[in-house]
Design a protein that fits this description.
Rossmann fold; 2 domains; 43% helix
Amino acid sequence: MIAYFVYNLNKYSGASQQALLLAKHLKIPVVIFNHEKGTKFSKFKVGSYLEIINLPKNKILALLYIVCFLIKNKIKIIHLHGFFKYGIALGYFLRKKIVLKTTLMDSDDFETIYYKNKRPILSKFLIRCVDVNVCLTKQLFHRNKKFLSESRICIIPNGVDEVKNTPTIKNNIFCFVGLVCERKNTYESIEYFLKNYSELEGSKMYVVGPLEGLNELDNKYVEDCFKIVKAYEAKDKVVFTGNLDKPDVQEIFRISKALIFLSKNEGMPNVVLEAMISNCLPISFGLDGVVNDILGKDLARHLVIKNLEQRVDVSILDEIVKSSKAASIARRNYSIEVVSEKYKNLYRELTS
């Protein structure tokens, strides 16, 4: 059995949802310890292999519960989806193999952890306790190798569910999917649509994501997003859906020609992969080369923009959609089946 540590499984967390998706496809016993404020202690099974435990609010009780569970069930591997300091310490003192996944540039990469921490010596010690660090991208790899031997770092991307029967001819439907917040540049994404595509026949943009109730959200920023739509007199063109269930998001990807995703900072943006596998093209900044690497040179030269003034012509979008190149790349490199096999091999190597 493998123990996963995640934050906010029941909220809008890409890292925790990625962990859940992976656990469901591994087909080996996994327990997920969910750390989330406002959630009562509970545990339940999902299928034959997965158990989810929402930990007690009291940190001491949560720690004692985890220790007892790890010992009782003879857990061999702890897989941390984010920089859990106490999780690394637990693994070290209980002599468990520690897999640490780095999820976000300028947030939990080792360089950021070290230089922004009040106790850099402790951070350095904890980093060196890690058996394997999984980086989502080569950009994260290059940062982290300054603090941990390259032989203990590997690159495994996020994975996405397969999508079948994606259309190769689409109407002028566009979307943004993610938190409506400054880091995600939601305002700029809406503005980009309004300036470049709102005059197209039958054009529409769906803005999908929470509008309230999360720490990263700012009421004024959300209000500004509504204001720019009003300023363009485009209320019939831009639809704010709020948070949607996964099947509804997948349907929006399926019908959308392009995802306008101008985020400032990401590890590996799941939403780009989810769009691509539905043959929805990401119009995005390069994110220090991350999006370029995902798309490959051929698609990146058309879809990665350097500034908001650079317009991707709709005829180019139509041509790429018709070719299904984006969907083919996503299936080949980022299918959850492909990614889960890489993790199975990693876990086998650690326990052999």
